[in-house]
Design goal:
This protein is α+β, with helices and mostly antiparallel strands. The protein has two domains: 89 residues, Arc Repressor Mutant, subunit A (Orthogonal Bundle); 64 residues, 2-Layer Sandwich (Dna Ligase, domain 1). The protein is 50% helix and 12% strand. It is built from six helices and five strands; from the N terminus they run ααααββββαβα. The strands form two sheets. It has a three-stranded mixed beta sheet with strand order 4-3-5, with no helix packed on it. Strands 1-2 form a two-stranded antiparallel ribbon. Helix 1 runs antiparallel to helix 2 and helix 2 crosses helix 3. The mean pLDDT is 92. The chain binds zinc ion (2 copies). One zinc ion binds next to helix 6.
Length: 153
């Protein structure tokens, strides 16, 4: 699954004439292999382990390319930082922890995601709107943070 996504993105970049640098390849790998939706700063920290001289601007350039290709979803966490989902660029529900700022996919299945899309269209249509995008974000405490807050009372 993740290998497929990696090859798909590299192929698309190449076809659209973008340069495929080792840093760019590593950035894609980091984003794809993470179980979380990372922020630019988190991607940068991981990238520096392999490319110590790389800059944060390099990460932002790769993210801008992915945005232009429509292959990454921007997520606004409550920590104020933008996080990125490279696995699924179409809107889908996210769970956002207000304590540790982790963002994960809500594992609800395709049927519910389709239902959400249909509801959004219906709602917009009723109000005479054309849908250009939407978000479905749930804020709360993740299981680890629920445990942590319980422990400290
Ligand atoms: Zn948490
Ligand atoms: Zn996601």
């Amino acid at each position: 699954m993740s290998d497929y996504r990696y090859r798909q993105l590299i192929d698309k970049m190449r076809r659209q004439g973008y340069r495929i640098t080792p840093q760019r390849m590593a950035t894609l790998r980091i984003m794809i292999e993470s179980q979380e939706h990372l922020s630019a700063a988190q991607i940068y920290a991981a990238l520096q382990e392999h490319f110590p001289t790389t800059s944060l601007a390099t990460v932002y350039k790769t993210l801008a390319v992915l945005m232009k290709m429509g292959e990454v979803l921007e997520l606004h966490g409550n920590g104020g930082e933008v996080h990125y989902d490279i696995m699924n660029p179409r809107p889908h529900p996210h769970l956002i922890c207000v304590r540790c700022h982790r963002i994960v996919d809500a594992d609800v299945g395709d049927a519910l995601i389709a239902e959400q899309a249909a509801l959004t269209q219906r709602m917009a249509h009723t109000m005479g709107y054309e849908v250009l995008g939407y978000r479905f974000d749930v804020y709360g405490l993740c299981p680890a943070c629920r445990e942590a807050t319980k422990a400290t009372g």
